[in-house]
Specification:
The complex is a heterodimer. Chain A is α+β, with helices and mostly antiparallel strands. Chain A has 22 helices and 13 strands. In chain A, strands 5, 6, 7, 8, 9 and 10 form a 6-stranded antiparallel β-sheet that branches. Chain A has a 4-stranded antiparallel β-sheet with strand order 4-13-12-11, with no helix packed on it. Chain B is an alpha/beta fold. Chain B contains 3 helices and 6 strands. Classes of the chains: A alpha+beta, B alpha/beta. The interface between A and B is large, with 72 and 50 residues. Strand 3 of chain A pairs antiparallel with strand 1 of chain B, so a sheet runs across the interface.
C-alpha cells in the first residue's frame, strides 16, 4: 500500500508538470485543444493525489507500522479518529494533507471555469500547477510519509523493520480542536493560491479590470474565514491543552498564520475601493501577492526549523527549497506588476481625508504595519544572527506594544468608516452620524471610570467597542425602518430582508460586530488573576469571588493513558457551583508523555481555570494553580458570530435578479438606501 | 485634491512614527539574547544583568521538584548550567528528563541562573532509535 501511495504522488507530479507545459504551450499557440488536455491532466493529477491521500489514511487505520510515519505518529490503542488525525500529527504526513487540499482546490477552480475566461485559464492552470508541483516534489523527495522503516545490521545491510507498536500520537494533540485545527488552517493557507493565480493570469493577459477579483471574491473570503477560524482554534487548543492560562503567546508559528490573515483582511477591504472607485489597483496586486507569499512563508517557518516554537515540526531539510521558491514567486510577480504598471493606473484620486476611501486606506496602512511588526518580531532572532552574529529574541511586550494600539485604531476605523460617505463627508452629516455613538462611548467610559477601572487600554477598548456597536445597530435600525415603511413588513422581516438584499454590506457589519466581541474578550486579559498553592484535603483557596475546597484525589486508567485527578469543590460567593476535577494524564505509548488536563468553568463574565500541576514532594500535597480570566468566553462566541456573518456575505448573490426585475416606484428609495 | 493627499501622507507618517516608538520601547523591554549553554559558559562575564534565553538539554535525573524553587541542570556540548525556576506558571508537560529546554531569565547575584519562563520540547523521534531509509 505504501508503494501504491508513493506511485500515486509520482504520477500526480508528472501530470502536473505536463499540465504546466501544456497550458503555456496551448496559450501561446492559441490551441484550445492543448489547453483542454492540460486541464484534464491537472484534474487527473488531483484525482491521483486523492488516491495517495486515501492510501495513507488506510495505512494509518490499518496500523501498518512498517511505514515510518505511521510508526512515528500513531499506535494500536489510539481511537480511530485520532489514527486518522495522526496523518497531520507529524511533518511528512501533513504534507500529504497539504497537497491533497492544494489539488482539491485547483480541481474545483478548473471545473468551475471550464467555460469561462478561456484566455485567462491557461495561465491560472499553470500557476496552480506550479504551486502543486512544488509541494508534491517536496513531499515525494524530501519528506515522504510512505518511507519504510529498515533496520541496519552490523555489516551495514538493511532489512525491513516493523516495530510491535507505534510511538503514538503526541498526547498534546489528542484534543478535538487539534483534530480540525490543522486542516482548517491549511485551507486558510492554501486558498490564497487561487486569487493569486487569477491575479497573475490577469497581469499576463493584461485584463486588469476587476474581473479577477470578482471571480475569486468567494475564494478570498472563504480562505480568510478558514484562516481566522484556524487561528482561533489554535488558540483554543493552547488554552485548554497547554495549561498556562492563556490562548495567545506571539509564538512564531501563531504569528506565521496571523501575518497572511492581516494582509488578507487588508485585501478584503481594499478590493471594495477598487470595485467602487477604480483606485488601488497596484496595491491590490501587491496585497494578493503578499497573501500568497506569506502563506508559503508561514509553511516555511513552521517546517524549516528556522524559529523555535511549541507548534513547529521538528527540523526538516526543506528550508533551502522554500527559499528558492519564495524568491521565484516574489521576483516573478513583482516583475509582472512592474511591467504592467501602465495598465494599473488609478481612475480617481483621493478627494478628502474625511471620506470612506480614506478610512479604507488607513485601515490598509494599519493592517500592513501590524503585519510588518509581527514579521519583524518573529524574524528578529534570524535577522540579528545574520547581521550581528548574536541571536536576539523579542517577547510579547514588543508585540503588544505595537499591536494593541493598532487594534484599537482599527476598532475606531470600524466605527467611523461606515459613517463617512464616499468622496467627502459634510460636517452636518458627520454631526448627525456621530451623535449617538459618541454619547454611548462617553457613557461607557464614564461608567467604567466610576466603577474603578484604571487600565488605559482596556477602557479605550470598551469605549470604542460601545461606539462601534452603536454605529452598527444604528445602520441596521435605520435601514430596516425605511425598508419596513416601503414594503410594509414588520421590523424583523425588514431586518432580514435588508440583510439578504445586500449580503455583502450587512454580512460585513455582522463580521465587524464579531470583531468587537473578540476585542472585548481580548481586553479581558488586562484583569486576569492567578494563584498557586500546594493543598491537602480540606484546604481552601480563595480567588476573586471563588473559593476552591480540596475534596479528594483519585487515580484511574483507560487503554490510552492512566490518570490522577483531584476533586475541588468550587464555590462562588459561598454557593457550590461545581466539583472541578483537573487531571494529570500519563500516556502509555511512546516515552510516557504526561499532559495536564485543565478544568474550566466558563461563563460570559469570566472563566475559572483550574490546573492540577502535580503531587508535590514528600508531604503528599497537591499543587493547584487557578486562573480567573474575565471575558474569554467572548472570544469564542465572537468567532462563532464571525463565521455566521461571513456565511451571509458568501450566500449566492440575488443582485442580478434584483436588476432583472424592474424596481417598482416605492422600492427605489429602499434600493438606494441599501446600495449606499 | 493635493492637500487631501498630503494630509493622508502626514497622517500616515504620524501613525508610523508613533508605532515605531512604541515598538522600540517594547523591544527594549523584551529583548533577550538567545544562546546555548556552552556559549553562556564562555561569555558569562559579559552577560551580567542582561535578559537571556539559554537553550540546552535537561540532564536526566537533575530535576529536583522538591526544592523551592525547583532546580535542574541543562547541558549542551559538555557544559552544564544549574537553573532555578522562579516563575509562577505551571511547568510545561513537555519539560522532563532529556527534553530540549529554553530557559529565560537572568544571572542572580550568587551566580546561579534564575529562570522565570521555561519552554520545552520532547527531543526524541523514532528515527533516533531506528535507522530510516527510503523504500
Amino acid at each position: 500500500m505504501s508503494d501504491f501511495g508513493n506511485f500515486c504522488l509520482l504520477v500526480a507530479l508528472c501530470l502536473s508538470l505536463y499540465s504546466i507545459f501544456g497550458a503555456l504551450l496551448g496559450a501561446r499557440q492559441k490551441q484550445d485543444r492543448i489547453v483542454r488536455s492540460a486541464e484534464r491532466a491537472a484534474l487527473a493529477a488531483c484525482a491521483s493525489i486523492t488516491l495517495g491521500f486515501l492510501s495513507l489514511v488506510y495505512l494509518l487505520v490499518a496500523s501498518d507500522f512498517s511505514v515510518a510515519h505511521v510508526a512515528n505518529a500513531s499506535n494500536r490503542d489510539l481511537p480511530v479518529l485520532y489514527k486518522i488525525a495522526a496523518l497531520w500529527g507529524a511533518h511528512d504526513g501533513s504534507m500529504v494533507l497539504w497537497v491533497f487540499f492544494t489539488g482539491l482546490f485547483s480541481g474545483i477552480v478548473i471545473c468551475q471555469n471550464r467555460f469561462r475566461y478561456r484566455d485567462m485559464m491557461p495561465y491560472v492552470i499553470a500557476v496552480l500547477m506550479v504551486n502543486l508541483a512544488f509541494f508534491l516534489a517536496l513531499t515525494i523527495f524530501l519528506s515522504n510519509p510512505f518511507n519504510q522503516l529498515v533496520e541496519v545490521g552490523p555489516d551495514g545491510a538493511t532489512t525491513p523493520f516493523m516495530p510491535a507498536d507505534g510511538r503514538g500520537l503526541n498526547p498534546l494533540l489528542q484534543y478535538w480542536a487539534m483534530i480540525i485545527h490543522p486542516p482548517v488552517l491549511y485551507v486558510g493557507f492554501i486558498g490564497f493560491v487561487i486569487p493569486f493565480a487569477f491575479a497573475i493570469a490577469a497581469l499576463i493577459t493584461r485584463q486588469l479590470g476587476d474581473t479577477w477579483m470578482r471571480t475569486t471574491r468567494r475564494w478570498t473570503l472563504v480562505t480568510w474565514l478558514f484562516l481566522g477560524i484556524g487561528l482561533i482554534l489554535g488558540g483554543k487548543w493552547a488554552y485548554v491543552e497547554l495549561g498556562w492560562g492563556g490562548y495567545w503567546a506571539w509564538d512564531p508559528v501563531e504569528n506565521s498564520s496571523l501575518m497572511p490573515w492581516l494582509i488578507a483582511t487588508a485585501f478584503l477591504h481594499s478590493v471594495i475601493v477598487q470595485e467602487r472607485k477604480g483606485m488601488l489597483k497596484v496595491w491590490n496586486m501587491l496585497l494578493v501577492t503578499a497573501c500568497y507569499f506569506l502563506g508559503v512563508f508561514g509553511t516555511f517557518l513552521t517546517r524549516s526549523g528556522i524559529v523555535n516554537s511549541v507548534h513547529a515540526f521538528a527540523d526538516s531539510n526543506l528550508g533551502e527549497y522554500f527559499i528558492y521558491y519564495m524568491i521565484l514567486v516574489l521576483a516573478g510577480s513583482l516583475y509582472l506588476i512592474f511591467d504592467r504598471l501602465p495598465y494599473l493606473k488609478s481612475e480617481r484620486s483621493l478627494d478628502s481625508v474625511i471620506s470612506r476611501e480614506s478610512a479604507f486606506l488607513f485601515n490598509n496602512l494599519i493592517l500592513v504595519i501590524a503585519c510588518f511588526a509581527v514579521f519583524w518580531g518573529t524574524m528578529f532572532p534570524a535577522i540579528s544572527e545574520w547581521a550581528q552574529g548574536t541571536k536576539i529574541t523579542v517577547g510579547p511586550p514588543f508585540f503588544n506594544a505595537v499591536n494593541i494600539p493598532i487594534g484599537l485604531f482599527l476598532l475606531f476605523l470600524t466605527g467611523v468608516g461606515p459613517l463617512f460617505a464616499w468622496r467627502q463627508t459634510s460636517v452636518a452629516s458627520l454631526k448627525r452620524a456621530f451623535l449617538l455613538p459618541s454619547l454611548a462611548a462617553l457613557l461607557t467610559c464614564a461608567a467604567l471610570l466610576a466603577l474603578g477601572m484604571r487600565d488605559f487600554y482596556a477602557i479605550a477598548c470598551f469605549t470604542l467597542s460601545a461606539f462601534v456597536v452603536v454605529t452598527i445597530v444604528e445602520e441596521f435600525y435605520k435601514a430596516a425602518r425605511i425598508r419596513g415603511k416601503n414594503t410594509g413588513d414588520n421590523f424583523f422581516a425588514a431586518l432580514v430582508g435588508l440583510t439578504l438584499k445586500n449580503k455583502r454590506r450587512y454580512g460585513g457589519y455582522i463580521v465587524h460586530l464579531s470583531v468587537v466581541l473578540i476585542f472585548v474578550g481580548i481586553a479581558g486579559n488586562a484583569f486576569n488573576r492567578e494563584a498557586t498553592r500546594a493543598m491537602v484535603a480540606g484546604d481552601e483557596l480563595e480567588i476573586g469571588s471563588y473559593t476552591l475546597r480540596m475534596a479528594g484525589y483519585e487515580e484511574g486508567e483507560t487503554p490510552n493513558y492512566s490518570y490522577g485527578r483531584v476533586a475541588l469543590e468550587a464555590f462562588k460567593n459561598g454557593k457550590l457551583i461545581r466539583v472541578m476535577k483537573p487531571e494529570k494524564r500519563f500516556y502509555k505509548a511512546g516515552d510516557g508523555q504526561s499532559t495536564t488536563e485543565v478544568e474550566l468553568y466558563s461563563t460570559p463574565r469570566e472563566d475559572l481555570y483550574v490546573i492540577f500541576a502535580g503531587i508535590s514532594g514528600n508531604q503528599q500535597s497537591y499543587e493547584i494553580t487557578v486562573h480567573v480570566n474575565p471575558l474569554v468566553w467572548w472570544v469564542w462566541f465572537g468567532t462563532g458570530i464571525m463565521f455566521f456573518g461571513t456565511l451571509i456575505t458568501l450566500l449566492p448573490d440575488g443582485r442580478r435578479r434584483l436588476y432583472a426585475l424592474r424596481p417598482s416606484a416605492e422600492a427605489v428609495p429602499a434600493l438606494q438606501e441599501s446600495m449606499k | 485634491m493635493r492637500s487631501s493627499k498630503l494630509k493622508f501622507v502626514v497622517g500616515g507618517i504620524v501613525v508610523v512614527a508613533a508605532l515605531s516608538w512604541l515598538g522600540f520601547v517594547g523591544f527594549e523591554e523584551s529583548k533577550a539574547y538567545y544562546i546555548t549553554v556552552d556559549e553562556f559558559s564562555a561569555m558569562q562575564a559579559d552577560l551580567q544583568g542582561k535578559t537571556l534565553k539559554i537553550a540546552g538539554d535537561v540532564v536526566p535525573g537533575s530535576i529536583n521538584r522538591a526544592a523551592r524553587p525547583i532546580e535542574f541542570v541543562i547541558s549542551h556540548e559538555g557544559e552544564n548550567l544549574t537553573v532555578r525556576y522562579i516563575g509562577r506558571g505551571v511547568l510545561p508537560d513537555t519539560f522532563k528528563d532529556g527534553s530540549k529546554a529554553v530557559v529565560e531569565g537572568r544571572i542572580a547575584p550568587d551566580g546561579t541562573f534564575q529562570a522565570n519562563h521555561i519552554e520545552a520540547k520532547c527531543a526524541s523521534k523514532y528515527e533516533a532509535e531506528y535507522e530510516k531509509r527510503g523504500t
